[in-house]
Amino acid sequence: MLETTEHFTSDDPVIDWILKTVGHELRVALPLGLGKPVTLINALVRRACDDPSIRLEIFTALTLERPEPSSDMERRFLEPALDRLFGDYPQIEYARLLRAGKLPDNIRVTEFFLQAPNWVKVQAAQQNYVSANYTHALDVLLDQKPNLVLQLLARDGQNLSLSCNTDITSDLLRLRKDGAADFAFVGQVHADLPFMPGTGEIAQSECAALMTPDAPPHDLFSVVKQPVSLQDHAIGLHTSRLIRDGGTLQIGIGQIGDAIAHALTLRHDDQIAPLWAGCPFPHAERFNECGPFQSGLYGVTEMLVDGLLALFERGIIRREVAGAAIHAGFFLDSRDFYARLKALPLQERARIAMVPVSFTNSLLGDEEAKRAARPQARFINSAMMVTLLGAVVSDATEDGTVVSGVGGQFNFVHQAFALRDARAIITLPATRQGKSELTSNIRWSYGHVTIPRHLRDVVVTEYGIADLRGKSDADTIAALLEVSDSRFQKELEDKAKAAGKLPDSYRLPDAARNNTPEALQTWLGPHRDDHLPSFPFGTDFTDIEQYLLPALGDLRRASARISTLLPLMRDGVRGEPARREQDALKRMALDQPDSIKAHLSALALRGALRRHERRV
Length: 616
Description:
single chain; alpha/beta; eight-stranded mixed sheet; 25 helices; 37% helix
C-alpha cells in the first residue's frame, strides 16, 4: 500500500496515474450497485477502447441503468419524466458497449448479480455471469487477483466512509492489511452520498488516489418506486403475522418489501384489526402476531431499503445489538431515501451500522454472539416461482437465462435453518400476467431452482401462509395448493396426483376454493384509500402519472395480442369518459393525435382508463 495519497479533481489525470502506477494489465473490482464511481470507470473504459495495449477486466454486480422505453407508449410516459425520476445519472460505458455488441476484445466484464430483467437478451452478459452466493463473491473476486479497486466515497470533514458499499470492500481492505490481497484503492468523493460512521469509515491513507470533484459529477442513481397493488398489500398483511416482537428482521427492495413494512406500521399503530376482520382466506391461529412492538425489532440485512429505514424512523426497529438497531451490507433506493439518511443526526445514523455481508449474511465469525443477537429471526425474500414440492425459483429461467442472481437469498435461507426459532419466508404473487396468458407462479415442477426443496420453509401469497418446514411431500403440496390461485388449483392437484405425490382421496378444503382476485378486491378494496396506499413511502410520480400507471399496465398486457387490444380500443369509443381522461391524454401528448398511430394509441389508452375506473 502506498504511504501517501495522490489527490485529483478530475477523471483523466486519475486514469493517467492508474496506468502509470498500476500498469496496463488492470483487474478492476467495482462495488455492487450505487458505489460505482461512474465517471472514473467511464473514463477508464474509453481509454481502453482507444488503446488496445490496455487489458481491462472488470468484476462487479448490479450495474445500474436508466430505463430505455421499449414502446411508443412507454416513450410518451417516461421521456418527459426521466430526469425527474432518475436524475442525470449517466449511462455506464461498458454497459452501453455490451448492449451494442461493441465491447472490444481487450475489455471483459463479469457480474455475479444483474439488474433484473435488463440483461436477459444480452448474450455477452449472460455468458460472463458468475453464479455465486453473495458471501462467496469475495472468494471469486480474490481468485481473479484484483490490482485496482474503484469506489464512490462519502466525506465528513477529513473523514471518509465507504457509505453505501461496505458489503465486500470492507473485507477487501482488511485482507489487504493482513497481506492476503494487493491492490490500489482509488476513491471518488460524492457530496450527496450519506456519510455512515462506524465500520465503514476508512482512513484517507487507505486511498492510493482520491478524486474530489468541485461539485457532484452526477445525481446518485434513484430507484423509482412502483405502485403497491392490493395483491402486494395482502402479502404484506399475511407476512406481518409472522414477525415476533423483540425479534430480528430482513426484507428486500420492491413493492412487496414496501407492503410488509407498511403492514408492520399498521400493526404497530393498532390499525390492522379492521383489515383482518373481513379476510376471506383462512389463516392459521399459530400465525397471529398482531400487537404493537413493545420491545422493537433488530434489523440485519444485506440491503438497507426504504421500508427498513421507515421502520427505524418510526421506532419499530430499535432493539440494539452492539449499539446498532440495523446492520446492513449495502444500500440502494430513492433520492429521498439518501436525503433522509443523510439528514439523520450523526448519533442516530451511527445506529445504522454498515458492515460487510460476511457479517449480515453469515453466522461464521463470532458465531456465539450472532446467535444471541438474532432471536426469532424472520428472513423475508421474494421469488419468481415456487414448485409444489417447495423448491424456490428466484434468479433464472429453466433454460439458464439469468434474470438477476442468487445474491444473498440462499445465505438467509440457510441462516434460518441454522438459528433457533428462525424462519425463511418466501413471498410471491400467486399468478403473473405474461404477454399472452395468465400463469400460476406455483408450479408442479420447474427446470431450474435457486433454493432446493429440502430447505422449504414458509411461502406467502396473497391468499395466505403455507408452513412447509418439516412437512411431508404430500402435506407440502396440500399447503401450497391452499395458497394457490383457484383458477389453477385443479390442474396442479391433478398433476400431483398423477405423479403419485398426493393421495387420490385428497380434497381441497372448501375454505381454499375462493382464492380469486375478486375475493381479494372485496376484502381490501374498501380499505384502499384509508389504509393501503399505492405508495406507502412516497413517490416521485406526479398525481396524473400515478393515475395513469394502472391503465398503462393494463394496456401493455393487452397489447401483446390483437384479440385483447381491439376490445380495449372499442371501449375507447363507447361509454362514459374516465374521470381524468383528458388530463391523462394530455400528459401522454395524445389529446390531439396527429397520425393514425397516435389516434389508435389514444383510443386504446381511453379504453384502458375507462376499464380500470369501472373495475375500481
